[in-house]
Amino acid sequence: MQGVDWQFAIEILPKLLEALLVTIKATFIAFGIAAVLGLLLALARRSPSRWLSWPSSAIVEFFRSTPLLVQLYFLYYVLPKYGFKLPAFVVGMIGLGFYYASYTSEVYRAGIEALPRGQWEAARALNLSSLHTWRAIILPQAIPPMIPSLGNYLIGMFKETPMLAAITVVEVFQQAKIITSDTFRALEPYTWVGILFFLLSYPSSLLVQRLEVHFGSVK
Amino acid sequence: MVQLNKTPSDVQAPMVRFEKVNKYFGDLHVLRDLELDVAHGERVSIIGPSGSGKTTLLRILMTLEELNSGYIYVEGEPLWHMERDGELVKANEKHLRRMRSKIGMVFQLFNLFPHMSVLRNVTEAPIHVLGMSKEEAMERALELLDLVGLSDKVDSHPYQLSGGQKQRVAIARALAMEPKVMLFDEVTGALDPELVGEVLAVLRKIAYDTHCTMLVVTHEMGFARDISDRVLFFDSGRILESGPPEKIFTNPDNPRTNEFLRRVLEH
Predict the structure, then answer these.
(1) Looking at CA atoms only, how far is residue B121 from chain A in angstroms?
(2) Which residues of B touch A126 (CB under 8 A)?
(3) Alpha-carbon distance A143 to A111, whole Å?
(4) What is the DSSP pairing of strand B230-235 with strand B238-243?
(5) What interface predicted TM-score (ipTM) does this complex get?
(6) CB-based contact B219:B48 (threshold 8 Å)
């Protein structure tokens, strides 16, 4: 059995931290996409127009019902054959962003539906436009209770970023794989990856728990 | 054929007219060929057993609920329809918004915006719908909050208020839009008994001090008697009896009215 090579462990840390920044960056960018796109999908699904509600339902159901890994492979390895070639990082952001948008859209939907009907009716009786009703009446009330759920998806997404390794994005897990194949040492790099994920995930989930107490939660 | 009224502000036209209005919820026939004229400035109370369609009548007039057939006119202009090529077709949102501006409503459950201060509840629509300046809207709101006796609650949030106070804010909020017709849907129905009086007092003030047309669905018979020019007794989606309050409350023609009043006044 191989023992821990402490010096090696310390040597590889800067490289892993550098790649961790990519992981964090990917998480936040993809989450930004998921947060905005999820809201748009939720709004489109509620639209009285079938031209909006049907495609958005289809998108949500499709992304929720197929594995993320397959989606990433498809975007990265299949689409270029038809002329859509994008950098791996961009493909990763689109893949993760859409996949999680299909989940956040359900959070938005639940949050919006949780508002009493009277809020819509009061807005209508006051003759507010529908845009203003959404912006000033509905969303400001619906979004705070969603924050804990959205936070949980943010953490979930962070832990799924190693999937991006499958399409060659050099995030922290891919970096560990590279180090391992260069040095034939697996213990230190993968242990580091686990520790780094834990150090970021655990405090974040404690934070989300506190947000839940503060805002209450949907679902 | 429908007679189109080309002059919306025609003084001859009643403030509100229901013409053969029908409303169904599934199999339930909630309003049956309803005919009703309400004059400018008239104060009409609507009484009757629950489920008789009183609230639905108000909700259709506020455009919260669609009608299934018939016509409603506000100042001679169709509410749920608009004229196109000489025919009445279903109104679009633009038409509805223009018509809606004539009508205001106060709800049983207040429906205040909980994330806004009392002041902002009252100024939001005047600023964003009527296009009032902030200063003007605030000045108006302060007057109205004074009228309903809540000058000291301007910066409070709804959760800090009692039910009676919430309802008074809701009244100020509806009045701020300067509607020609005010609809009151069982506005004391959700209040603790000791809070009913303060809300009725405000409504009395509005009834006596303004020229607003009022349609009031209520279970407060004493109040209905005091403020109404006319009382309608509603049962099973029909107006069974209509008349001045003295008549309805003392000597109704219809035995059902009598029975209903006996039951309500007994408890």
Answers:
(1) 10
(2) 104, 124-125, 129, 173-174, 177
(3) 7
(4) antiparallel
(5) 0.91
(6) no
